[in-house]
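Table S2 (continued). Query chain:
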Amino acid sequence: MEAHMETGLSHRKVRVGIVVSNKMDKTVVVKVSRLAEHPLYGKRIQRAKKYVAHDEENTCRIGDQVRIRETRPLSRTKRWELIEVLRRAPVFGSDTPGEE
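Corresponding output:
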């Protein structure tokens, strides 16, 4: 199992999405969108699904673009874990000078 992690080969699914909620402790809700063809008309339409993911350090903010990976069940709904934050969301109305 360790050899797979070193070479980057893994059987776990990976998704990229936007954080829509970070209200829970060590947990984020990630919305993953994809394009699918309409079964009858053939037009491409946007489909979305929400995943509950584990965020150990509580680093995510709403609007961040993140990469999540499938993992063992951590709770009733949580089966994904945060791998990395790809793009930070801008912070509006922040009074502290160190924040972006």
